[in-house]
Write a structure and sequence with these properties.
254 residues, 5-stranded mixed β-sheet, alpha/beta, binds glutathione, Glutaredoxin, 2 domains, globular
């Protein structure tokens, strides 16, 4: 898989007949859908997009120009990670990722909702540090505490139960990125193993889930991309090795 991000002027790769996800390698929302596609063992193609120089054709799939967008049939797409993931779960029920109990599904949505303030705090800390307020750090820890309490109350390995589900794959991409914050000098965002014992066990378990392992990036890698984006020059292709030397035509000898 090429990690190259396509940009304005690049042609749309040929449709292969598989599901196709338009994504950006470092986007947590796109990661949510990648994880669900992986968890369901679906065949899919990934197309990475340079969000600062979007190819014109992106808007045919995602009218707002956001990723992820899922091309579920040639030329037909839906967008928004939560909408895509519920669609995938209902369309491909072999590996169900949501509870059959409506109340539990509602509770899962509340877990995600209650976590959103921690997500916002992360975004400010990572990309707009001068705007960071003490109340945001507080909200971040409230979010982590809430998540830990929920895990404790549910008493299961994952939020979904003994196997991870949609609720886990929705929250995980942010937990993955939170570990980059201390590396960026934001030590107040560290997830202390003693204070967050249950949460730490959960985080380590999630890292080993096959769907996650196949796509997860190290905190150092997230930190490097975040730094480039915070400086206003996101290094989208920092993981791409497809252009390296040897594929270039050799210069003819005189
Ligand atoms: N609510 C959307 C949010 C998606 C989103 O904001 N994605 C970002 C990238 S992480 C994006 O596409 N931004 C558009 C831009 O940067 O122009 C979802 O869950 O899919």
């Amino acid at each position: 898989m090429s990690e190259k991000h396509l940009q304005t002027g690049d042609v749309l790769p040929q449709y292969s007949g598989k599901l196709r996800l338009f994504a950006m390698r470092f986007c947590p929302y796109a990661e949510r859908s990648v994880l669900v596609l992986n968890a369901k063992n679906l065949q899919y193609d990934l197309v990475f997009i340079n969000l600062d120089h979007k190819p014109e054709w992106l808007f045919n799939f995602s009218p707002k120009g956001t990723v992820p967008a899922l091309e579920y049939e040639q030329g037909k797409a839906i967008f928004d990670s939560n909408i895509i993931n519920v669609y995938l779960d209902e369309k491909y029920p072999d590996v169900p990722l949501q509870s059959s109990d409506p109340l539990r599904r509602a509770q899962d949505k509340l877990v995600v909702e209650n976590f959103s303030a921690a997500q916002s705090a992360y975004y400010t800390a990572a990309f707009n540090a001068p705007a960071l307020q003490p109340s945001m750090v507080e909200n971040y820890h409230k979010g982590l505490n809430g998540l830990q309490k929920e895990l404790e109350t549910r008493g299961t390995k994952y939020l979904n139960g003994n196997e991870p589900g949609l609720v886990d794959y929705t929250i995980w991409p942010f937990l993955e990125r939170f570990e980059a914050l201390p590396l960026l000098g934001k030590s107040e965002f560290a997830i202390d193993k003693t204070k967050y014992e249950i949460l730490t066990t959960y985080i380590e378990a999630m890292k080993n889930v096959p769907a996650v392992r196949a796509y997860r990036l190290a905190p150092e890698t997230h930190a490097k991309f975040t730094e480039s984006r915070a400086k206003g020059d996101p290094d989208y292709n920092m993981l791409d090795s497809s252009d390296v030397c040897c594929m270039r035509p050799r210069k003819k000898k005189e």
